[in-house]
Design goal:
single chain, alpha+beta, ten-stranded antiparallel β-sheet, two-stranded antiparallel sheet, 6 helices, 12 strands
Length: 323
């Protein structure tokens, strides 16, 4: 048996670059924006080394041999598993994936399982191609299928694999381009309403305050935001309460939970309102004193097949209502 040392070294090196070097460079280069766990990096290295070894074994044999095609079948399946892991496919029961984007303005957790499953599907198609080639070599016959014209079955799977790769590449590029045209803007302007308590007197300790805030979701991409759930918690940063009793610093004074919006359509700039209920215990303090406030926003949504968990915050100044 002739051993192809040059091909083993060449393709093993190429696979090492794609399985290990490029992912680690990207993780390092984007470490200020995208965070991954140390365990993910270790597993990535181990899985990558195994993939390199399989590639080396594959190219030990001539291409048109059963051994080469059989190992190619294993490599295709393994590559699918590798990509499935890279895109967070191994998170059963968890909608969110591996990648955590951290910027000054926001933190975003991305669930990329749809991409993971699509890439695994492409690997399965490629594996079927190699499996058919193994069977053809063993039985020394070609399997063909007639679709308008006579085609070799393995070539059909090979062509399908190429087509699916082009589609998934276009899909990923479209997500990236669309993602660059998204923004969420929580406006600093607010309005308020006072709900007088049982005594009927305004600006009293039994009153409730509702703060209404406008926000924009600018979606200039080609996909719509679907099933949006929005939470907002309002915290004090500093207040003019001299005793820190009616309106203490660094406490949560109000919230809104699970505000639901069915859709933010593509190619639109949508303005919505959200009303935050201030806890009654702090209502009088908010009426009486000035405060620097922080609005902490959590947004769950579904966009282009990706689950998104966005967290951001904005600081604003509150003027007392009693002068």
């Amino acid at each position: 048996m002739e051993i192809q040392y040059s091909k083993m070294i060449l393709y093993g090196s190429i696979r090492f670059i794609f399985y290990i070097t490029i992912p680690l460079i990207l993780i390092t280069f984007l470490s200020d924006i995208i965070s991954v766990s140390p365990g993910f990096v270790i597993n990535l290295f181990i899985i990558g080394i195994i993939g390199v070894i399989l590639t080396i074994l594959k190219h030990m044999f001539l291409k048109d041999t059963i051994a080469n095609r059989l190992i190619a079948f294993v490599v295709a399946i393994y590559q699918g598993i590798y990509l499935f892991y890279i895109f967070g496919g191994f998170t059963p029961g968890i909608k969110l994936g591996t990648y955590y984007i951290n910027t000054i303005q926001a933190q975003v957790l991305l669930g990329l399982q749809l991409i993971a499953w699509l890439l695994l599907g492409i690997a399965v198609v490629s594996a079927f191609q190699h499996l058919i080639e193994v069977i053809e070599l063993r039985k020394k016959k070609e399997y063909r299928v007639k679709i308008k014209k006579d085609l070799k079955l393995s070539k059909l799977f090979k062509g399908s694999g190429y087509l699916l790769n082009i589609i998934i590449l276009g899909y990923i590029i479209s997500i990236i381009v669309s993602g660059l045209n998204l923004s969420f803007n929580l406006k600093e302007e607010y309005t308020f309403s006072v709900d007088s308590g049982p005594d009927g007197l305004p600006l009293n300790s039994d009153d409730r305050i509702n703060v209404t805030i406008n926000f924009d979701l600018i979606n200039k991409g080609i996909y719509s935001f679907q099933e949006v759930y929005l939470d907002v918690d309002i915290f004090t940063i500093s207040t003019t309460d001299p005793f820190n009793l009616s309106l203490p610093e660094n406490v949560k004074i109000g919230e809104v939970k699970n505000a639901y919006y069915k859709e933010f359509p593509r190619f639109t700039n949508t303005t919505k309102q959200i009303t935050i209920s201030i806890f009654q215990i702090y209502a009088l303090g908010l009426i009486t004193y000035d405060a620097d406030l922080e609005l902490r926003v959590s947004l769950l949504s579904y966009y282009a097949g990706i689950n998104i968990d966005l967290k951001t915050s904005i600081q604003t100044f509150w003027d007392e209502l009693i002068v």
